[in-house]
């Protein structure tokens, strides 16, 4: 939501402090030391349970071989596993806080944590090698290669009367210090910068650097300035790569301004940069505190989960998929079993490449609060539309990073922010896109703070009666069985069988890998042409198509992880011919495309890819669903499960739009079977109820034979379907979370 809020914290609330140590361990935060007021430093340790916004002052045991850490500021405090590592900082030698006598530290401590809450105590590890020199306002990160090697802690830069740019490595398993040899251009000496690990790279941004030309280490009384320079260190090759130089001009405000004392955090593959201050040492009155929030997308997003079905009708699907963190939208595509006619006479239009900021290593940084960079997907608007399909309409501008309130709607798009598209041949691979290692840097505009109630009270929401859309259908086997799926978690009978969470997670038995479905994919936005679509006629749909052509059609680009699909875009005949011969094609003007309605009783394949500032990521595995056949009843809805001592009570509502009179309902339970071991995706069901009532009892004996499905969260699976004069309609599949 890009919305700041002020949590209502309680407990042992720590005093305000600066230059403290800060780590996040799951849902708890640990804060150590810092400057409480000028000349008075702290060595207190506080723990915040963020799930309850509860502060607690903790008292670790003192080390057996020395004294606990003295009060300090500007130290590093790094988490790895169940231990925090404290190094260096600045202490005050004087007992009088008004008479500050600075002492730079290079002591090293280890703090063992208890699981979930609390700490064990401090220890002073016995290390080998030469310790790094004393310093404060440095950075320390921990990195461990996935394939080989032990975890390493890297310390970079800092202040010890002058700025430093040396790199130190600590092997945490052997506790050995060393100075790794690096390649590339080492960043300028700096302090109060940030360093964050994403993948195998340590990203270093900002800080105080020497004012002198050439960046040589300045004397203690020399001048220094804030910098906006940005580099990363490849931790596998120890090679420095510069992304933004200190002297690079940025007259258009496309990049974060110079700053020091800011904070930065990695969320997935995205780096967020917040606040800080800018200025010169000899011009304190001119220092400016920053209040801007930026982010850097360092790589394309991961593939989403398979598309899942929430509801199917005769001519539409309601779909969802698992969210991918820190993405701007999703490209949804379908493939139809029926031959879909190409549209003749609609030309593809090429869009020229846009200029990007080049840097070492072939990386490109993009950013603009006013004009967003080239990324390999079309113009779109990232929005929270009121429509249920959340489709990105009308080929309008996109803001990948800002939010504002417009006419009562929360909007994540600024009209002046545009995204242009580079020619596709620079980004194509087997799925239509080439992975780019070029990071893209974007700003985030946020709304003001709001005071919230204690979020611990949110747990009470679990007891509310939630009524999820449960009418879902899909082909589950070679038969015409249709299944809807929702996930429920039961409380005791006193909760009135409330559905706690609608976690629709349909596992289709016909999941194909991307390699088996190689196809060219073009991203698009949904645009209404206003032209009649003659291709909807059955005659047009029967136009012969070569079976070897694997044609994927765009449904649209969606802000959220759900969509209502009733149409898809038709591609021009020329484009289909190009796609069948080459891996590259011109970018289409989707405002000229016509759309095709879905047909009843037809199987459609779906795949989805996530989009961020670096482009379109890989597509998900393929899911396959079938539209309903007219005349059959819909799926039962609003399924509730109430747990008792020796059984459970299953109840449901009649289909929302039944066809004809409902003659009976059937309820089924997925059971253990040898057939299931051979094909885990093909569940085996036993009927446990048949009758006119909209409820049934599932006995303990029946549950003892149940299969626990681990396709997502562990669950017992039920199916409920309704029958009329024509037969059984689609079933509602319920995952009872265990």
From TrEMBL:
Q: Which SUPFAM superfamilies match?
A: Fibronectin type III (SSF49265), Kelch motif (SSF117281)
The record ties this protein, via CDD domains, to: FN3 (cd00063)
Q: Which SMART domains did the record assign? A: FN3
Protein's cellular compartments: Nucleus
Domain of life, per the record?
Eukaryota
Composition-biased stretches (Polar residues) = 487-497, 525-535
A Pfam family it matches: Kelch_HCF
Q: Where is this region: Disordered?
A: 463-547
Q: Which GO terms describe its cellular component?
A: histone methyltransferase complex
Q: Which Gene3D superfamilies match?
A: 6.10.250.2590, Immunoglobulins (2.60.40.10), Kelch-type beta propeller (2.120.10.80)
MF terms per GO, please? transcription coactivator activity
Q: Where is the Fibronectin type-III domain?
A: 301-617, 633-729
Q: Where is the signal peptide?
A: none
* Ranges annotated as biased composition (Low complexity): 471-486
**Could you identify this protein by its name?**
HCFC2 factor
Organism annotation: Sitta europaea (Eurasian nuthatch)
């Amino acid at each position: 939501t890009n919305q700041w809020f002020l949590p209502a914290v309680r407990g042992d609330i720590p005093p305000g402090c600066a230059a403290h140590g800060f780590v996040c361990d799951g849902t708890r935060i640990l804060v150590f030391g810092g400057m409480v007021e000028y000349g008075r430093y702290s060595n207190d340790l506080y723990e915040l349970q963020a799930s309850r916004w509860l502060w607690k002052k903790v008292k670790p045991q003192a080390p057996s071989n020395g004294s606990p850490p003295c009060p300090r500021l500007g130290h590093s405090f790094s988490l790895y596993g169940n231990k925090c590592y404290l190094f260096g900082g600045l202490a005050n030698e004087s007992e009088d806080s008004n008479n500050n006598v600075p002492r730079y530290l290079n002591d090293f401590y280890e703090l063992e944590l208890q699981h979930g809450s609390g700490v064990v105590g401090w220890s002073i590890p016995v290390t080998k090698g030469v310790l790094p020199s004393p310093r404060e306002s440095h950075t320390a990160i921990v990195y461990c290669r996935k394939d080989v090697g032990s975890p390493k802690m890297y310390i970079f830069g800092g202040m010890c009367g002058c700025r430093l740019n040396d790199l130190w490595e600590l092997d945490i398993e052997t506790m050995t210090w060393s100075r790794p040899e690096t390649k590339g251009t080492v960043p300028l000496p700096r302090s109060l910068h940030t360093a964050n690990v994403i993948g195998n790279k340590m990203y270093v941004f900002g800080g105080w650097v020497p004012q002198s030309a050439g960046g040589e280490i300045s004397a203690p009384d020399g001048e220094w300035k804030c910098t906006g320079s940005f580099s990363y260190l490849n931790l596998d090759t120890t090679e420095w790569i510069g992304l933004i130089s200190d002297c690079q001009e940025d007259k258009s405000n496309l990049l974060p301004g110079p700053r020091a004392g800011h904070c930065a955090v990695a969320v997935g593959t995205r780096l967020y940069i917040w606040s800080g201050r800018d200025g010169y040492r000899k011009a304190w009155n001119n220092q400016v505190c920053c209040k801007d929030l930026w982010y850097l997308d360092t790589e394309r997003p991961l593939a989403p989960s398979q598309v899942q079905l929430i509801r199917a009708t005769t001519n539409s699907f309601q779909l969802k998929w698992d969210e991918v963190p820190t993405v701007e939208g999703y490209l949804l595509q379908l493939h139809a079993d029926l031959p879909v006619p190409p549209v003749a006479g609609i030309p593809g239009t090429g869009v020229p490449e846009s200029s990007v900021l080049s840097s070492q290593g072939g990386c490109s940084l993009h950013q603009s609060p006013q004009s967003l960079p080239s990324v390999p997907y079309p113009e779109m608007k990232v929005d929270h539309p009121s429509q249920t399909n959340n489709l990105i309409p009308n080929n309008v501008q996109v803001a990948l990073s800002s939010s504002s309130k417009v006419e009562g709607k929360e909007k994540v798009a600024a009209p002046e922010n545009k995204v242009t598209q580079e020619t596709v041949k620079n980004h194509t691979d087997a799925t239509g896109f080439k992975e780019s290692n070029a990071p893209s840097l974007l700003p985030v505009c946020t709304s003001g703070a709001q005071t919230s109630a204690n979020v611990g009270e949110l747990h009470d929401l679990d007891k509310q009666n939630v009524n999820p859309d449960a009418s879902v259908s899909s082909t589950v086997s070679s038969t015409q069985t249709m299944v809807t799926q929702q996930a429920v978690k039961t409380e005791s009978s006193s909760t009135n069988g409330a559905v706690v969470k609608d976690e629709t997670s349909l596992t289709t038995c016909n999941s194909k890998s991307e390699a088996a479905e190689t196809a060219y994919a073009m991203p698009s936005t949904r645009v209404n042409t206003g032209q009649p679509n003659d291709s909807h006629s059955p005659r047009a749909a029967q136009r012969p198509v070569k079976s070897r052509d694997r044609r994927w059609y765009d449904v649209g680009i969606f802000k959220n992880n759900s969509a209502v699909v009733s149409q898809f875009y038709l591609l021009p005949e020329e484009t289909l011919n190009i796609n069948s011969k080459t891996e590259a094609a011109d970018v289409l003007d989707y405002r000229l495309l016509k759309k095709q309605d879905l047909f009843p009783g037809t199987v459609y394949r779906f795949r989805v890819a996530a989009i961020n500032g670096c482009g379109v990521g890989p597509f998900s595995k393929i899911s396959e669903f079938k539209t309903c056949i007219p005349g059959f009843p819909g799926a039962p809805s609003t399924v509730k499960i109430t747990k008792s001592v020796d059984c459970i009570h299953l109840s449901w509502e009649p289909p929302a739009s039944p066809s004809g009179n409902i003659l009976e309902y059937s309820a089924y339970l997925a059971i253990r079977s040898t057939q299931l071991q051979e094909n885990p995706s093909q569940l085996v069901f036993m009927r446990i109820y048949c009758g006119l009532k909209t409820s049934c009892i599932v006995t303990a004996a029946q549950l003892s034979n149940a299969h626990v499905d681990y396709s997502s969260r562990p669950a017992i699976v039920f199916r409920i379907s309704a029958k009329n004069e024509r037969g059984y309609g689609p079933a509602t599949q319920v995952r009872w979370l265990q």
